[in-house]
Every structure is written in C-alpha cells, then in structure tokens.
C-alpha cells in the first residue's frame, strides 16, 4: 500500500525525503511538495508517514490487491515516547485505536558513549569477550560459553 | 531614498490614473487567476466534498459560534504568525516574506491612490514602510531561495535550478529587487538606469500577479481555508482518521492500554526528540 | 559529469551498510578502537534504513541463558535441524553465546522488551523468540552507532569495494556516489565491515504492479552485501539456500506471533489438517533423520521450515487450497486480538492496511496464507552469504583463518545477511555479528595486517567512470529516439529488473514454476544471465535516483549469478519447500552433506565451486 501526500497539508519541508529508506519520497517540480515517485518500491514502512510534522502523508493499499476505502493512520510522538494507530475498515465496521510505547527512556540518554568507557584489558582483547561481557550475557558473574565449558566438540561428518 | 515616494516622482511621466488603473488591473488578475485555477481544477468542488465526507465521521457537531472562534484562531495562529511551520528557519523566512509583501503592496496602493503626485506630499512613513517591506521581502525571499527551498536542502539540487514552482518566489524577488533599484536610481537622478529598473519592476510585478494561474501565489487563499478545515476536523472529532492525542497520565488511557503504564510508568518522563534531534538534511 | 570527487582517508573501520549488522559493528568498534577512525557509509538514512525500518514486534534470537532457558548449543541444534544440517555450527555457536548481551543492552537503551507479569522474565513468543514493542528498534540502535562513529555518511550508495593495489586480495576501502548531490565518494580504509543486506526482488514477486513493493524482505535489500563481496572476489557459501516463506497472502504479514503466542494453526480449503498427510512421502525424500513421521507426534520436534512449506505447496497443488490460518478461536480474546494487530503495526504495517482494505476481521474469518517468492539472505531461516572465518576458540582449522567474521578477502568482514552459514540470527544475531566483526577488524589492524595499503589513482578514476556510465549512456543515446522508454541502445533499471526477475523465476525455481528447477534449466538460465550481464553494460539512468536503481540492479544480478551457480552445483534437493532439483529429487547425505563454497574470479568472472566439510557440535566424549 504505497504512500501519497495530501496537497492541502504538505508544505514541502522535506522530512519525508530525508527519512525514506527506499529513496522514493521526492519533491514535485511543479508544486514543490512531496510525493511518492516509485510506488512499486514502497514497502509501506510508514517511515515518512511518521516523520511528517503535519501528518500530510497517508497510505492507500497496493492497487494489486487492496480495495479502496480503508484508513490506517498513525501518530508517532517522540516526545511522549508512544505510537498511536487508528485502523478503519472499508466497511466501516471496525474503527480501532491502538497505542504502544516506543521507548522506556528518554532517547539516547541511556546509550553509552564507548569512547568514554575504560579501555579493554589485553586479556579481553585476546579473548572472545565483547563490551559489557561476560556480565551482560547472563547478568551474572559467570563466564562466556565455550566448547569446553559446555562439553562439546566440533566433528566433521554426518550428524543430525 | 527611503523617505521619497517613487510613484510621486514618476507621475511626471506617467499619469496617476494609469498607475491606479494598473493597480486595479493587478488585483483583478489575482482574483481572476485564482478563480480560473479553482474552476479549471475543480478544486472548490473537491474541497467541499471532502469536508462533507469528513463530517460523516464526526463525533460531534460544530456550531457556527465555534466555527467563528476557529476562524479567529486560524487568523491569529496560522495566518498572522505563520504558525503552521514547525521548522524555525522556514517560519522566520515566511514571516519576513509575508509581512514584507503586505507592507510593500499596501504602501504601494496607498501611495498611488492617496498621494500620487508631488501636489499631495506623501507622509514620510509610507515610503519608509514601502522600502522596509521590499527589504523584508528580499531578505526573507533570498534566504529561502538559496538555503531553505526543499529541493536545495533535501534533494541536494543546485540553487540556480529553476522550475515552475519557483515562479512565485522568483517574481516576488525580482519585483522587490527591481523596485528597490528603481527607487534608488530614480532618487539619485540616474535617468537611463532608473527607467530600465522601472520597466523591469513593472514587468516583474505583472509576471507576479499575472501568473497566479500557474504559480503558488494562490496559496495565500487556499492555505487558510485548509487550516480552518483542519481545525474543524479536530473540533468535531473526525480528526481526518488520525488517532487521538493521548494523555499518558490519564487512568482511563492507562486502563485501555496497559502496556503504557507497564513499560513507561504511570507518569512517563519527557522523552525528548529522537530522530527529530537532527535537522532533516542527511546527505 | 560535473560531480566532485570527495575522498575520506585514513579510515580504520569502514562500515558499508548500517542496518542491524552495520550498527552493531559501528557501536562495538569504538570500544576496541578507542582512537580508530570509524566511518559509516549508508545508502539511505541510518535512522530508518535496512530491513528493520518499520520496526519489529519480536526479537527472534534470544537464548535466555540468564534464566537458564537455553544454551547456545541448543540454538545451534535448532538451526541445524531447520536448515537440514547445513549450518556453520562454529559461527552459529559463537553468535548464540554472545547474542543475549546485545539484547540486554537494547533493553538498557530504552527498547521496550515485554515482560511476563507472572515470572518477571521476558515474554516469550516461542523457545527463541521474545516479544518487544519495537517500532523504534532501528532509531535506537542507530543512535548507538552514531555515538561510536566518527562520521556517518547517509545517502551514499556504495557500489564497489576498493582493492589494495600493493597486495593481492586485500581490501582497501570502498567507493560510491551520493544519492542527493551525485558526488563521487571514495573511502580509503584499512578494513571494511560489509553489512549491506540480503536480496529481495531478484525472483519475480507474486504481485507485479504497485504490489511489487510489498515483498517480504525490504525492497531496498538489493543484495548489495553479496554484490559488493562477490565482486571483490570473496568466497560465498550456501547461495543456493534461498528461502520461501509461508505468510499471510499478499501482505506477507508475519505469522510467528500468531502461531506461537496466539496458538493459531493452519487448515486447507476444506477445513482439514493437511501437513501430516505429506510427511510419509517427505520422509522418503529426505530421510528419517530429518523427518521422523512416526515419531513426530511423540517427539514434538519442530518441523523444518522448508518441509512445512513443502506440505503447504503440495496441498495447494493438489487442489485443496487456499490454506488459511484459523484465527477465529484466538481472536475472541480481545487482548490477543490487540496483540495480533500490534504484531502487524510494529513490523509489517502493510498487512494491517490490507486487512482494513478487505474488511478481514480475524474474529470472523480465517485469513489466507501463501508461499512467497524466494529471497536470498542470511539471517532468517536461511544462511546465504560470504564464507567467513570463525572465532579462534571454537572453529576447526578448516573454518579459521585469523579473524572472526573475516571473509576470504583480507580485511573484509561481514555482518548479518552478509555472513553465510549463520541462519536464525535475526536482528539481535546480526547486531551481534557486527560486534564480533568489529572486534576482529580492530585486532586485524592492531596486528599490523593493514600496513602498506595503496590505492592507485587509476583504480579510483576507473571506478568513477564505471559508476557514472549509465548517466552517460542515457544522455548520449537518448538522441536516437523521439521519446519514451524504448531505446534499442539501452535498458533502464526497471526493464533490467523485470528481465532478471522473469529469468530467475523461470529457470532458478521461482514461484511461477512451483520452485522447480533442474540442471538443464539452470544451464539455460546461466546463459541468459550472461546475456543480461552483457546488456548491463548498456544500462542507462536518467537521473541520480535511477542511477541508484541501476547499481542496485547490478548487485542483484551479481547475486543471482551466484545463486544459479550454487543451485547448479548442489545436485540434490536438500530443502524441499524452498526449491527442488527435478533431476535429483532426494536429499543425498552421502555426497552432499557439505557446504557449497564458490569463488568468482575478479578478472575473468569465472566461477569455481568446491565442497566444504561440514562440522557438527557433538557431545564431548
């Protein structure tokens, strides 16, 4: 179901152009507003729909198989940390509201800057551990699994 | 230069009646261009049909009193402060261009109709406002042209690429620029150049008002109408099929969507901007 | 052409492609390379690029070692079973023992992982899968990558890897063009971690108009990981192991949560259970070790994905379709109903749109399923990708040559879909592979293996010419015709893609031929591929966007050629339900209990195929 842009809502700000993973949201040369230039490369990922500050982008199901008259719209509110959906069926029998969290913490605040972490020891470098390991594997003081620790061997041949 | 009414000086070679006639003609061209555009595109028919369709999913009706208050809000917010813009630079540039244009056009009309000749001396404030308007228009416009236009900022295209969507901004800029040059050269008495500047000024303004059918000029009528209709959909609950804006601390919301309090707490913190933290030109 | 050449030099770790694999690599690289220059080159925008653009509703690779739920070798055995034995078990074990630490860090970063209210553990969807509210999965991990990287270049289509002119078979960086400005970008780097994604749209999709965009794997997965690495001369493995998925019809929405969490099940058009009907015949085809019909209901062993597909396909071909999923029971519970919809909205919104458009309410009707067209990638229930070295403490000598996740090209590492033989990695596993590759890449540099790299001006200039050639072709030869898209001198990327898709579908076992192929067909297909490759020299692009599509097609063609070669080489039907070799309709452990490895000569384009020994984890005696 490719995207389309509402004429009366788009002011040509370019957020959708910037975010589209498929490079298909571009600016119309006559109107300087956005539109989908290649609907058959549109995954309906809704990245542009979520990014538009004016909710000017909407989706109409792929013409191959989706009849008209439906509506699936979204409000992604970064500052609240939630995403709200509204699904309306073509026959009008269903009008669902859904709300889900998209983060549990303020964006980026809990992500470490690894440049500021203390450097790994030589033992760590020579071994198999990654950052925050082995602690974060099981959130305990145990070590990393190895073939020896788990009583295993790799043997060539037909085994099942 | 700034306190001299350039039209008053011009009245020596062009009769004030002609100038006034020109102004009226420009107004008619704007109205004509807009109406023709609406008839040609059947945009009015679409607009009202769409409004009717939206009303079907309305949850409550909006009476005329409320509609009037909405109209006032549109005027105060979207129109007077260009409130629809989320991007600060775009908003600022639009305010400069919009008020510059209004000052410029209003001062022009007043000077041409009320103080057309040296016989009726022009109060200094009018030409000052005329020049300020033109300058604001030029500053906001050139800023927009070189840096803010989305084809330049998001598509990576060069600033000298010209397309039909640029008709409006280009004619605005040439009108303001040649207007200022004309005022300057005329006040300095540089005869040949001032005539040339005036001719280009008139050509630009004729293009500006005459190309309304093809340019983005008419957005100044359509946008407020669209903003009004958008607010009505929020007021009557149809919301253009968009979901609600939820208050996460509301217990009813938390009961309906238990994952919210479960993973975010009953009083979720302000999460700040995420993807929005960076400006949207990643290339 | 007026495009500038912009050179980024002295890079230590270049990450080509910033999906889940690439972001994992970028993030981890900073820890092992405090002072190293880490640069990301991404085709789209890192915040929403890759297969996880829409988000995910589940993390499908989580051991739960924290709660004693599984051990890494359990996952390896599961992957082995699902892939009919064909797994690089050293890589899989390595990924499985590390993956939990990535997941725990995701939670710490703010990704909402669902919890079971009673036990406090993560809410499991299945044995390996946990449920998440993952709409912002990609922006969150992208932020982690951005915090580590020195520079992030968005909108750069990496078209080629740079090879060292001083030493044979060593990587020297990458080149590409900016999809906005059109400028030529050169990245000179000591190592490259390739996370440029698997391949969708190389087989003809079931929907052809707008619907061609509704592919199961993202349409922007242009097989660039394979296209880049094959062109660099890296050995590839298991490229025949394409995946076919049974998903909701048309929308290809996910069924995992439905089966596992909502406990739905499938039926044929007559309302009957149909899978077990096909098992006896399947057992004949693949052997009792892979499918034990009698013991199946006793052992409750999961049935390999491909075999379930086979039952599906066979049932439909027998005329008892459509297959549908029985949701009417589960959806009566409003809580489960909500999960069912959320599952789509967090992962494949298009499926929700389709049901809204067709008034499908799973409470009142059982939606149709279908088997998709094939995809070539390496992080799902399939393991295509580059032949990589494993970790030192696990890998046997055959699988180890110095640095974890390094391909057979020195300094070229892979992550995610790019790495072959590690199926069932999914998002968390791909991120983990990126982390492993990053550590190894830093070690490679610290060991002095990247000294003396030299890139000639000639190589850079030649590549620049190559990259912009389609624009040139278009400009010059458009003079021949009045207008339109039909020109005897060139093809545009859409035309090329249509041709490739039809070719792959008909000769390499697409859905149109019920996934069937044989030696004769494959040989014909290869011949046609050769002609297509010749025509690819004449591909034309009218603007930078089309140039992007042209190079995506180039990578797809390179991937498809590899798929053909591998499919031809493996003379058996190892995965009925993914594809069939009509001339070898049985599984043949005698001759083919091996991994297929290919090498494409960089200069001649010639393919050499070899069998690589298959090692399995067994208990230590």
List keywords for this structure.
heterotrimer, B: mainly alpha, C: 621 residues, alpha/beta, seven-stranded mixed sheet, four-stranded antiparallel sheet
Explain how this protein is built.
The complex is a heterotrimer of chains A (160), B (283) and C (621). By secondary structure, chain A is an alpha+beta fold. Chain A has four helices and eight strands; from the N terminus they run βαββαββββααβ. Chain A has helices at residues 15-19, 47-51, 122-126, 135-138, and strands at 3-5, 25-27, 34-36, 57-59, 71-77, 82-88, 95-101, 152-156. In chain A, strands 5-6-7 form a three-stranded antiparallel β-sheet. In chain A, strands 1-4 form a two-stranded antiparallel sheet. A two-stranded antiparallel sheet of chain A has the order 2-3. In chain A, a hairpin with a 6-residue loop joins strand 2 (25-27) and strand 3 (34-36). The model of chain A has no long low-confidence stretch (mean pLDDT 93). Chain B is built from twelve helices and no strands. Chain B has helices spanning 6-10, 16-41, 43-56, 64-79, 88-114, 125-148, 150-153, 167-187, 191-210, 219-235, 251-256, 259-264. In chain B, helix 2 packs parallel to helix 9 (191-210), helix 5 (88-114) packs antiparallel against helix 6 and helix 8 runs antiparallel to helix 9 (191-210). The longest helix of chain B is centred in the middle third of the chain and has 27 residues, at 88-114. Chain B is elongated, with a radius of gyration of 24 Å. Chain C has a domain at 248-371: Flavocytochrome C3, Chain A, domain 1 (Alpha-Beta Complex). Chain C is built from 17 helices and 20 strands. The termini of chain C are far apart. Chain B binds chain C through residues 154-156, 259, 262-264, 274-275, 282-283, and chain C through 45-48, 112, 114-115, 117, 133, 136, 139, 143, 152, 154-155, 178-182. Strand 8 of chain A pairs antiparallel with strand 20 of chain C, so a sheet runs across the interface.
């Amino acid at each position: 179901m490719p995207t389309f842009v509402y004429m009366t809502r788009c002011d040509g700000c370019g957020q959708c152009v910037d975010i589209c993973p498929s490079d298909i949201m571009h600016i119309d040369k006559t109107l300087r507003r956005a539109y989908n230039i290649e609907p058959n490369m549109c995954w309906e990922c809704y990245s542009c729909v979520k990014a538009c500050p004016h909710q000017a982008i909407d989706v109409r199901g792929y013409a191959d198989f989706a009849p008209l008259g439906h509506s699936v719209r979204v409000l992604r509110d970064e500052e609240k940390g939630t995403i709200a959906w509204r699904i309306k069926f073509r026959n009008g029998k269903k009008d669902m509201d859904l709300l889900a969290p998209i983060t549990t913490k303020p964006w980026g605040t809990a992500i470490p800057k690894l440049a500021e972490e203390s450097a790994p020891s030589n033992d760590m470098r020579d071994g198999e551990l990654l950052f925050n390991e082995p602690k974060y594997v099981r959130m305990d003081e145990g070590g990393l699994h190895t073939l020896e620790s788990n009583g295993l061997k790799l043997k060539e041949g037909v085994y099942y | 230069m700034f306190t001299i009414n350039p039209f008053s000086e011009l009245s020596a070679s062009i009769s004030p009646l002609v100038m006034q006639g020109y102004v009226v003609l420009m107004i008619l061209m704007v109205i004509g261009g807009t109406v023709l555009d609406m008839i040609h595109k059947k945009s009015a028919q679409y607009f009202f049909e769409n409004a009717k369709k939206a009303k079907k999913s309305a949850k409550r009706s909006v009476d005329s009193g409320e509609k009037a208050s909405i109209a006032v809000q549109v005027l105060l917010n979207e129109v007077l402060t260009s409130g629809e813009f989320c991007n600060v630079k775009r908003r600022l540039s639009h305010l400069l261009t919009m008020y510059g244009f209004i000052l410029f056009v209003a001062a022009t009309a007043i000077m041409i109709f009320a103080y057309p000749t040296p016989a009726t001396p022009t109060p200094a404030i009018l030409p000052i406002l005329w020049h300020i308007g033109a300058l604001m228009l030029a500053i906001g416009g050139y800023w927009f042209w070189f840096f803010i236009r989305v084809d330049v900022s998001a598509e990576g295209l060069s600033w000298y690429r010209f397309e039909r969507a640029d008709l409006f901004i280009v004619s605005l800029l040439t009108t303001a620029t040649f207007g200022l040059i004309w005022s300057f050269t005329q006040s300095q008495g540089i005869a040949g150049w001032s005539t040339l500047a005036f001719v280009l000024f008139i050509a630009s303004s004729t293009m500006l008002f005459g190309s309304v059918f093809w340019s983005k000029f008419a957005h100044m009528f359509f946008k407020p109408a669209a903003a009004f209709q958008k607010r009505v959909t929020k007021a009557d609950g149809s919301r253009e099929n968009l979901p609600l804006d939820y208050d996460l601390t509301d217990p009813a919301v938390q009961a309906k969507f238990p994952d919210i309090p479960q993973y975010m707490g009953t009083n979720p913190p302000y999460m700040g901007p995420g993807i929005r933290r960076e400006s949207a030109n990643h290339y | 052409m007026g495009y500038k050449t912009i050179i980024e030099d002295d890079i230590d770790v270049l990450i080509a492609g910033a999906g889940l694999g690439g972001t994992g690599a970028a993030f981890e690289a900073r820890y092992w390379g405090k002072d190293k220059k880490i640069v990301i080159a991404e085709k789209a925008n890192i915040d929403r690029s890759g297969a996880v653009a829409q988000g995910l509703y589940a993390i499908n690779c989580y051991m739960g070692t924290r709660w004693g739920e599984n051990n890494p070798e359990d996952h390896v055995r599961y992957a082995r079973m699902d892939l009919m034995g064909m797994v690089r078990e050293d890589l899989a074990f390595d990924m499985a023992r590390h993956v939990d630490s990535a997941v725990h860090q995701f939670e710490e970063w703010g990704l909402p992982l669902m919890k079971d209210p009673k036990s406090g553990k993560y809410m499991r969807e299945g044995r390996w899968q946990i449920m998440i509210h993952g709409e912002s999965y990609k922006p969150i991990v992208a932020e982690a990558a951005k915090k580590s990287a020195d520079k992030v270049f968005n909108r750069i289509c990496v078209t080629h890897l740079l090879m060292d002119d001083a030493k044979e078979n060593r990587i020297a960086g990458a080149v590409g063009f900016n999809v906005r400005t059109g400028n030529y970008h050169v990245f000179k780097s000591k190592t490259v971690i390739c996370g440029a994604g698997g391949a969708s749209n190389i087989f003809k999709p079931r929907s052809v108009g707008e619907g061609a965009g509704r592919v199961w794997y993202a349409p922007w997965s242009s097989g660039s990981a394979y296209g880049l690495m094959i062109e660099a001369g890296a050995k590839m493995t298991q490229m025949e192991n394409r995946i076919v998925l049974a998903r909701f019809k048309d929308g290809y929405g996910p069924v995992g949560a439905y089966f596992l969490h909502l406990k739905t099940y499938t039926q044929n058009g007559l309302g009957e259970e149909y899978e077990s009907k096909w098992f006896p015949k399947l057992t004949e085809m693949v052997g009792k070790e892979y499918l034990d019909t009698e013991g199946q209901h006793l052992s409750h062993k999961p049935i390999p994905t491909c075999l379930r597909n086979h039952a599906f396909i066979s049932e439909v071909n027998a005329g008892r379709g459509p297959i549908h999923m029985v949701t009417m029971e589960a959806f009566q519970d409003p809580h489960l109903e909500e999960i069912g919809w959320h599952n789509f909205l967090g992962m494949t919104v298009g499926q929700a749109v389709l049901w809204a458009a067709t008034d499908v309410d799973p409470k009142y009707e059982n939606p149709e399923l279908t088997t998709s067209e094939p995809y070539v990638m390496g992080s799902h229930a399939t393991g295509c990708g580059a032949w990589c070295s494993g970790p030192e403490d696990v890998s046997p000598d055959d699988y180890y040559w110095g640095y974890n996740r390094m391909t057979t090209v020195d300094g070229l590492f892979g992550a995610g879909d790019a790495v072959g033989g590690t199926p069932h990695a999914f998002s968390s596993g791909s991120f983990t592979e990126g982390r492993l590759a990053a550590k190894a890449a830093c070690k490679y540099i610290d060991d002095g293996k990247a000294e003396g790299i030299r890139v000639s001006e000639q190589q850079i200039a030649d590549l620049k010419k190559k990259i912009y050639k389609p624009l040139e072709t278009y400009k010059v030869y458009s003079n021949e015709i009045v207008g339109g898209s039909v020109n005897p001198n060139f093809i545009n990327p859409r035309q090329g893609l249509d041709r490739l898709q039809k070719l792959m579908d008909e000769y390499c076992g697409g859905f149109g031929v019920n996934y069937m192929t044989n030696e004769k067909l494959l040989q014909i297909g290869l011949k046609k591929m050769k002609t297509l490759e010749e025509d690819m020299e004449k591909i034309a692009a009218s603007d930078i966007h089309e140039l992007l599509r042209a190079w995506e097609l180039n990578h797809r063609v390179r991937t498809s050629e590899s798929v053909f070669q591998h499919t031809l080489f493996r003379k058996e039907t190892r995965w009925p339900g993914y594809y069939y070799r009509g001339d070898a309709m049985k599984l043949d452990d005698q001759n083919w209990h091996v991994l297929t490895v290919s090498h494409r000569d960089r200069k001649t384009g010639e393919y050499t195929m070899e069998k690589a020994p298959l090692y399995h984890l067994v208990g230590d005696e």
